[in-house]
Amino acid sequence: MLALGDLWEGLHRAGIDPSARGLHMTQEYLGGYTRYCAGPGSHPRLVVEWNESSRHLRIIRCEPWPGAEATISATVAYVRNEARSRGISDIVDRTLVAACKEPRKPARKTVVPSALNGAHALAARRV
Q1: What is the pTM of this model?
Q2: 3-state secondary structure of 94
């Protein structure tokens, strides 16, 4: 999902609407951290902050989001197909492949206490 966030603005500039499959994202630079907000609409269900240099992920908000995995997967498939048709698949695929390799590198995760209650704890572990 973070890889999609990194590609989001460039996809729009290339004429690809990555929200066409129901995933809505915003990205904000916060001096060291990048905040990603994602959800099925204008209200983000997931808000995380990522610091690339320290490899630290802060989970700010994690609300129930039925179908999140299917929405993200459909968005990735759509983006890859659209990128292929526009001749920019090498850029998109390179970013997505790098993201798939990323979990092998050590990272630290912090869940902000207000982000979760008992019902959301399981979702946070899967992020």
Answers
A1: 0.80
A2: helix
